[in-house]
Amino acid sequence: MKQKVGEKKSLMTRCLDGIERVGNKLPHPVTLFGILCLVVIICSTILSLAGVSVQGELINKATGQLEMQTINIVNLLSPEGIQFIFTKMVTNFTSFAPLGVVLVGMLGIGVAESSGYIGTGLKKIVSVTPEKLIVPMTVFLGIMSNVASDAGYVVLIPLGALIFLAYGRHPIAGIVAAFAGVSGGFSANLLVGTLDPMLSELTNEAIKLIDPTQMINPTANYFFMIVSTFLITFLGTIITTKIIEPKLGKYEGNTIIDSENDLRDLKPEEQKALTIANRTLYGMLIALVILTLIPGSFLRNLNADSYLNSIISGSTLINGLIPIIAILFFVPSVVYGKISGSIKNDKDVVAHMNKAMASMAGYLVLAFAAAQFIAYFNYSNLGTMIAIAGADLLKAADVGYVTLFIGFILVTAFINLFMGSASAKWAIMAPIFIPMFMRLGMDPAEVQTAYRIADSSTNIISPLMAYFAMVIMYVQTYDKKAGIGTIVSLMLPYSISFLILWSAGFLAWISLGLPVGF
Predict the structure, then answer these.
(1) How many CB atoms are located within 10 Å of the residue 303 CB?
(2) What is the pTM of this model?
(3) Residue 170 class from Cβ within 10 Å (0-12 exposed, 13-18 middle, 19+ buried)?
(4) CA-CA distances (angstroms) from residue 267 to 120, 162, 175, 271?
(5) What are the start-end ranges of the E strands in 168-322?
(6) Region of 300 on the Ramachandran plot (φ > 0 left; ψ -120 to 50 alpha; else beta)
(7) 230-283, pLDDT tens digit by residue?
(8) CB-based burial of residue 236 (10 Å sphere; 0-12 exposed, 13-18 middle, 19+ buried)?
(9) 20, 231, 254, 402: most buried, per Cβ within 10 A?
């Protein structure tokens, strides 16, 4: 469904258009992050001079033990703060988590795109996949990509645009559908991912405050997360088709489909090159699986306490996943290029890589500004203060467990707008909420499930989320005028729907006495 000329817009579309207009009247995202840096500096100075502090039981990073700590606001205009600003400016940028991930990933993906491997692969997908399955497939694959941590941000979101273009649909709708799955559905999955053991370890530390003999394992949320996968896929599909695509209307830019190059008509040389390149890819994947399954493999964590954990927790496979993905794209792409004629020698390969890196110039500038802001925010302890203060406020509320769960989810969702890291927030909140809910007779696994719902739901509307700047860059590929307002207005329906309906499903689940996991 597309908005027709002269057709009256729905109330939802008008509201989202208003949010977009207001948001896009803000300065350029780079300038905005610069302004936010100044805001953090000023706020840290005022609050520090006013002696503002908060107390809470937090995990001591040095000892790994829970301790009552006083968190003071760090003044960024103090001598130490000024030293931090100037001496850490370079490392803030180079250590910005998405930077290396995106650049390394693009070395492989960029060659795959410019050599024609991705384009021809999309032609094949279009020829065998019904159009009505494209939206749910994109959202579902986004959710499933979370088993590989952040790989979905690098691989699937830009591919979402190309997939939608291949069907003559708006590429930005493909980006937001993939983003909704990758980030909004970050905790849902059919498999155990890297986040599961990370959160369960923090939960177990908090459980010890009440019962040292009790603990949960990484599959403690598994049952509910399986059901959540289908819920988020359904919601993402409905929102994309009924709200986002009508709002965006018809895409007026260049599309992959044209009269001379129908995606459904593969040329013989394209088919041959694609077949051999895909066989190369399948062979590499089979070899990767075999190497991963072999006990004692260099791809596993040899110090892990179980066979499963040796694969998903601290393994070479997980920690080195982005380079592995880059290689999995790079090698078949070179094979495709050699057979199809788009790559003749090593100079052509390097030219394709240079082209991919050249397209990242805008992202590098944006990432520099975003990295400084996030570093200042964390260094000043403003995020930690907001998290502890919000948790203490909810803890003081004298309400029933259902109302308390709802309040917990809302507070977590709000804190998530300022503190993007799921593990960092849970390190602060688990020692507060796990004991509190356990005293009410609630299962710690249920509390962790509620936290994951809230943490995922507002990722997609928070400019502080590490990959938000990258999504802006992807959207600007198809709409040069897009800004933060554009992204927030497009993702808000997903965020609200996920938060409300996912939470309602969780409350219904525990009300029926169903276990959330093993």
Answers:
(1) 9
(2) 0.74
(3) buried
(4) 9, 19, 28, 6
(5) none
(6) beta
(7) 999 999 999 999 999 999 988 887 655 443 344 456 778 888 999 999 999 999
(8) buried
(9) 20
